[in-house]
Amino acid sequence: LKTPLKQASTSQLVLTERQPDCQPLTTPPKPKETPPADPWTPTSNLKMLISAASPEIRSRDQRRQLSDSSSEVLQTKHCLQEHLLGDEYEKSQPSRKEKSLGLLCHKFLARYPDYPSPSQKSYICLDEVTEELHVERRRIYDIVNVLESLHMVSRLARNRYVWHGRHNLPQTLQALRKVGEENKYIQQIQMIKRREYEHEFDPDSERNEEMASSFGSSEQSEMSFVELPGVEFRAASVNGRKYKSLRVMSQKFVMLFLVSTPQIVSLEVAAKILIGEDQLEDLDKSKFKTKIRRLYDIANVLSSLKLIKKVHVTEERGRKPAFKWTGPEVLPNTQDIKLEATSTTCSPPISESITSKEQCSKALFPSKGKQNFTRHSSLIKLVKSIENDRRKIQSAPTSPAKISASTYLFIIFLLETSFSLFLSQMTAEEMQMKCALSSPEAVPKPEPSQQPALSQPLGVCPASHSCVSPVILPHPQSGVSYAIYLHPSQAHTVTTYSPGFMLQPLPCANVTGIKNNNSKILNIITTEEGDTQRGPDEPTKSLAAEERPEMKSETSSQRCLKRSQALPESNLIKRRKSDEESLDTSLTFFPSGYLIPLTHCTHGNKAECSTKEKAGVCSLQHTAYSSPITGVIPMPASELKTVNIPAFHITPLNIMLSPNSIAAAPILSNSCLYSSSTSSAPNPSSSALNFMLQHIGLIPAGVQVPANPVLQHMPVSSQSENINHSSGSTIVQEGKVIEFTFYSPISESNFLFSFQFLQPKEPQEPQAVTENFFRTPGGPNTEPALSANSDGTQRTSQGTLYIPQRKLEVSED
DNA sequence: TCCTCCCGCCAAGCA
DNA sequence: TGCTTGGCGGGAGGA
Description:
Keywords: Activator, Cell cycle, DNA-binding, Nucleus, Repressor, Transcription, Transcription regulation. By secondary structure, the protein is α+β, with helices and mostly antiparallel strands.
C-alpha cells in the first residue's frame, strides 16, 4: 500500500502551484477516506479540470485514482498493516504540515472564486465544507473568522455564510488602515520596540510593570469589529467574546501592517499590542503564548490569502519571527487628502466622507464623555513612561544616567505642559488686553468662513491626529507667531480658560496645497471668542454659530485650510509680508501641543513692542516667545537647513515640518536665545518651568531653576543634503537626522538626542534604524561637546553615557 | 531547545 | 436542550 508520502514538500507543492490570479485548484483529499461520490459542484468540477492541467497534480491524482480503484483490497491490507505495524500506520497519517491551517485554508479558498459574480452569490455551508475537506468544524471556524474580518465572507445564519471573495478587500484594508492610524498603532509599536531596547541594557528594569501601566490604563483599549457599510456583521456571539474574537484580532493584526513602515510586524510586537489592548494587568507569559498561538492561526490564513508572508527579523537580540505585508498597497485615503488640500469653504463631501468612515469604524474610541480636560491616552502612556524615567534619575542622580526614549518623550511632555501652563497663567484680562492692543489690521475681523471652530462641541472628532486643532498665537512684538496644534479637547480648554484669547486654526501638516503660501498662512489671524457665553448679537458669536453645524463634520485640518485660503489678502499679510519674504519654503506644523514660532527670529518690531509693552502685553508675549520651557525659540533658516525631523518619529505626535518650520523644533539658536531672554519683564514661564520640573521630579521642591533657556542648538552637519528643499515636503526621507539638546537641571548636563531613520531602497534589503542618546556635561548654556556622525554609529565623547543602537535586518524564509 | 500550531476541551450563546 | 461557535492552552511535530 502506498499512501501519499509524508513529504515535507507536500504543502509547499500545493502552495506554490496555486497562483493568485488563477482559478483556485482543488487539493487532494485525504487518501484514507475517499468519499464514494464527491458532491462536485460545476465550479469544483471546473477547478478540478484546471488543476489537472498541472502535471504535478495530475500525477498525484493518478496515484490517488490508482489507490481508489483498489480501495477495498487496499483498505483491508491497510487494516492489517495497521494491526501489524503501528508505527508504520502512524507514518501513513498525514503529517502535521498536511493538516496545517494554512493548507486547509488553501483548500477552502479553492472552493470559491476570488471575485464571484455579484449576481450569483456563493453560500458556504459549514457542514458541507467540513465534510468535503475532512476537517473538524473548529478549524473551519478559524478560517471563516479571519475571512470575515476581511469581509471576504459574512455570516448569514447558523452554519451558513456568504462568500464575497476579494471584492470588499480594498475597501476593508482602507478602513483598517484608517482605524489603525487613528489607534496610533505606529506609536505603540515604537514604544514597545523602545522598551525592548531599554530592556536590553537594563534587564532588571520594571519592564513588565511599565508595559502594563502603559497599556493597561488605556481608555481606547476596547475596539470592536470594523465593519464596512453594506456588509452586515452577524457574529454568533457578538457580546461576550467580541473583543477577544479572532476576527477583531485579525483586523488589528492587519492594521499593524498597514500602518507600519516597513510593513513588517513581528509576532512579539503584535502580541504585545493585542495584549495591551485587552487591558491585561501584567504581561502574563501564558497569555502571551496564547496570543502568539492565535496570531499564528491568523497569520496562516492571511498567508494563504497571500496578504502576508513569513520573514525573520534579525536583531541584536536574535532572530524573531515576523510577517511582511505582501497584499495590495493601501495608500492613505487619497480622497481625504484631496479634500483637505483643495477645500475652501463649506464642503459637504467632507462630512459625508467622515460620516461614512465613522460608520465603518465602530466605537474605536468609545466616547465616554471624558475628553474634556483629559490628556489623550497616548500621552498618559508617555507620562507613565516619564515617571519611570524620573524614578531612575532620582535613584541614581550622580551615576551615569541612561537616557531613554522616555526622556525624549518627557521633553514632548514638557513642551505640551508648558503651553497649557502658559495659557492657564494668562488671565482673561491679559488676553483680552492682548486682543485689544493688537492693532486692528493685525487682527482682522473674522469672516464667516474664517471663524475658527474652537467653540465646536467636543466629541465631534475622534481622538486622532487628524483632529488636532492648530491655532496661532500671534506675537507682534517679536514678529513671530506661534502655531499650536491642539487636540480639540485642549482647544476647548483653552477657550474655556481664556475667553478673549485669540486662536486661529492653521492648515495642518503637510498640506500640499499650501506650498509657498506661508506668508499668507502665517498672518491670517482672526479673533475668536471661545467663550460661548457671549451674546448672540456679537458678530463673531453669530458667525461662529452659523458655522458650527458645518464644523461638526469637519476635521480641524480641513477647517483650518479653509481659513488659510479664505483670507489671502489680509492687511496683516501686507504689513508683515516683508518679514516673511525670506521664507520661501512651504509650511507644515507640528500637530502637537507645541508652541511653535512660525517665522525665523526677527528683531525689528520694537516699535510695535514698545506700544504694547505699555500695557504689559509685550512682556507677556515675550514670555511666550522666550519661554525656556517651550524650547521653541526660532532661529534663522540658515541654521535650520541642516536639521530635519523624520516623520518616522517615536512621539505620539507626528512631527512633520518643512525646513522653514523646523525652527519650531526644540532647538535653540543662541542668538535668538539671548535676544529673547534679556527681557527685564517678569517671566511667568519661569514659575511654570519650576512647577513642572518639580512636579515631574527633575528638581526637588523648593529649588528654583532660572528661566534660562534649557535647550540649545547643536547644528547637525550630516545628512543635510537629503533634505528636499525644492519640494518643501515634510516627509522625511531616509537618512535624516534630528538632534537637539536638552539641559537637565538635576544632573546639570545637556542631553543630546539624535535620531536617524534609515530605510532601504529595496524592501528586501536589510533595514536599519539607529537611535542614539547622549548625555553631555556642561551647564545650561553649554554646547554639547559632541560631534554628530552621519551614520550615527560612531559617536563618542566625554560624557557620552549611553549609545544604544539597534539594527534591524529583515530576511525572508 | 525553541518554534509552530494542531487538537480538542469546554463554555457561551443561539435556535 | 441540543447544537453552534469559538476561546483557550496542552503538548506534539518539526526545525
